[in-house]
Amino acid sequence: MAASVLIVEDESAFLHRFSQAVTADETLRLYGAVASVGAAKALIDADPPDVVLTDLGLPDGSGVEVIRHAVARRPDCDVLVVTMFGDDVHVTDSIAAGATGYLMKDALTERIAEAIREVRAGGAPISPGIARRVLQRFRDAAAASCATAHSAERATAEGTLTRRETDILRLVAKGLGFAEIGEVLAISPHTVVTHVKRIYRKLAVHSRGEAVYEARMQGLL
C-alpha cells in the first residue's frame, strides 16, 4: 500500500516541486499539500498520514508545532523536516519534537521521494553537515552519562530497561538508525540490534514506533 504523505510548505515553488515528486512515485500517495500550521493540524486530526514533510518557517507558527502534533496523534508517523534553517537550535528542537529526518532545501528537491522512502524504511536522512553536529552532541551526552553512571548498567527487575537500553531507545526516538546509534555509543550495529531486540521483548512490542510509544506511556523516556 502506498504511504500517505502530507506536505507543509508555504513557498509555492517548493510546495509544487515536493508535490510533484510524491505524485510521481508509485510507492507514495499525496494526502495533502498545505501552507500553514493550522491547515496541517486539521488534516492530521482528520486522518493522520504515514509521513509529514514540513518546513519550519511557516506563516502562522513553527513547523515544530506540526511535528509535535503529528507524533502525538500518531506515534509511528515519520516526520521529515525540509528547511533553510541549519542552526543547532532548530535542528535539536525538531529532533526533540519527534522528527525522523532533517534536510536542507538546497540539497533535497531532486531526491525528495527517496528521502521519504528512507524514513519509511526506518532510516534517518540528515544533511551531512547537520549529521556531524548532531552526532557530536550525542557523543558528548553519551560520554557524560557513562562517566557519571557506569555502575548502573544492569537492571534490577526483569521488565526494567537498563541504562544502555534506555540510551539506545532515546536515540531511536530521535530518528537515528542502528549504524548511527552504534557510532554515537561506540558499539557495533550488531550490538545495537541485540539491545533493541531485548527492548522489544521487555516492552512486548514489535516495532520502533511501538517501543517509543510504550516507553513514553510507562514514563521510561
Automatic annotation (TrEMBL):
Gene3D superfamilies: 3.40.50.2300. The modification 4-aspartylphosphate is found at D55. Residues 154-219 form the HTH luxR-type domain. Keywords: DNA-binding, Phosphoprotein, Transcription, Transcription regulation. Residues 4-120 form the Response regulatory domain. This is Response regulator transcription factor. One of its GO terms (molecular function) is DNA binding. One of its GO terms (biological process) is phosphorelay signal transduction system. It comes from the Bacteria. InterPro entries: CheY-like_superfamily (IPR011006), NreC/VraR/RcsB-like_REC (IPR058245), Sig_transdc_resp-reg_C-effctor (IPR016032), Sig_transdc_resp-reg_receiver (IPR001789), Tscrpt_reg_LuxR_C (IPR000792), WalR-like (IPR039420). PROSITE patterns: HTH_LUXR_2, RESPONSE_REGULATORY.
